[in-house]
Amino acid sequence: MTILQRWHARWPWRPLSQEMLVLGVAALITLLGNGAFWQGALAGRSFAEANTWRFVLGAGVMITAVQGLLLLLLAHRHTVRPVLALALVSTAVGGHMMARYGVVLDPSMLRNAMRTDVREATELFNPGLLLSIVGALVASALLWVVPLRVRPWRRAALVRGLTMLGTLVVAVAALLLIFQDFGSLMRNHKALRYTLTPVNVFYSTTSVVVTDMRAAARKPEPPQPVERLAQAPGRKPAVFVVVLGETARAANFGLGGYSRDTTPELRRQTDAVYFPQTMACGTSTEVSVPCMFSAFGRADYDEDRIRASESVLTLMARAGLRVVWLDNQSGCKGVCQGTDTRDVSHEKDPTLCDGERCFDEILVKGLERVLAEPDPQQRDTVVVLHQLGNHGPAYYRRYPAAFRRFTPECQRNELRECSQAEIVNAYDNALLYTDWVVNQTIEVLKRQRPQREVGLVYVSDHGESLGEGGLYLHGMPQAIAPDVQLHVPMLWWFGRDESNGRSDMGVDGACLRQRASAPASHDHLFHTLLRLMAVDTPRYQAGRDLLSACRDGTAPAK
């Protein structure tokens, strides 16, 4: 007989039924594990009013009953303890993330979390999260201490059925008690439904898994027709660099009018043109990167269609261009299929890498290697530099010590342990480093001008919250995301012939500056890159081409 069996044999009270244990855990979770929901639901209410207490009682009973029903569906004789333990741990982790960063655990956020690599995940690990997990594990261990009543299967099925029916009746009665109040709350604050743990974790995880299974089963769409456009005789081969920024928000970008000059190097690049009204396709890398390299974008957003279609990089590679993806992040999210893809985040450079991460200057060195490689075909080349950028919460780890200009900066992964000023200082230092990296990339391209025409675009995938309104990081649902998570910096630069003032790749610099004053978005990138690199497909739309009015005309090759 095991120690646990001996303990159960000496248990002084009657064994609990499975149903009683499930509902007890559900009530505990509702009371102690849903702080984010209660904080949002009770905001602006007075506890001196009877209606507030009626709402608390009705909502508490209803939420307990609904989550109890979910757990009763999953928890049976051999699964009850593991299911409840999973619920407790999910509640602890989810509750910590929502309380600390102000996020909500909708399917988009869960997908982003599930795609996060180990290095990124470790940066979210802090003493507060550890304490939450330990508490949940202790509570989970206690589930095995309590002996459970064992019934014959027919009686067990009858008791389970009656319990679920009774729980459903209680849930409906509680909802009717507060229907108008609760319904109004859910309509006006839709994100609150994704703060109810653990049902939010179960629902969102299931949604992501089902969506991914459906996507895996779906056949990719047939390849689109693609052809090169006629080029001017004697034209030099072109090199165009896409610097894909990470988590940089326009609100802190010096070129956009921020009170601090976080872009001193780029400000000295007189041919650099900043687009101050650029909006992202999403609030996370998982959404934005596939979207921004797609023909459909946010205007025609369809995630399934986006992931089933060819990215602009794949199309350019099929058209005969040399396309190289250099990654210092967590992968290309499927958009670099068919291209030369290289992970530089594990380089051994002792000045730039610490064994876990490399500073983004490693991308500049990678670009120099790509450009030094012989290409007998003298093809036009597109290189994507996927930055680590301003990825949080460890902003202080994104830049070398030489860029600690704004101090004191937050040097913790637990952002709530820092003041907002310290968080902003670390974030702005990381932007200073991005400014330097992009400027160095431009200088590399300038050195290529005798042999090649050159150009560059820098654009961030999404923005970031730095504590405004209690929100941190990113990934809020699109419909309620704050502007700082969607408004991103974008900058274009082209080499110029000093003898005649003509910009490379046929782009009129004055026209480009004029175009920069109008709104722009990630939706423009696919179409602009296609025609800039003289590639034509049926999906090209001139109306979404930022440079359509600023570039020399070309016609399809005959």
UniProtKB/TrEMBL annotation:
Localization per record: Cell inner membrane
Phosphoethanolamine transferase N-terminal domain mapped to chain residues: 64-211
Molecular-function GO terms, alphabetical: phosphotransferase activity, phosphate group as acceptor
Cited CDD domains: LptA (cd16017)
UniProt keyword terms in alphabetical order: Cell inner membrane, Cell membrane, Membrane, Transferase, Transmembrane, Transmembrane helix
Recorded topology in the membrane: Multi-pass membrane protein
Cellular component terms (Gene Ontology): plasma membrane
Alphabetical GO biological process terms: lipopolysaccharide core region biosynthetic process
Domain Sulfatase N-terminal positions: 240-533
Pfam (any one): EptA_B_N
Transmembrane feature ranges: 53-75, 82-104, 124-146, 158-179
Protein name per Swiss-Prot or TrEMBL: Membrane protein
Source organism per UniProt: Vitreoscilla filiformis
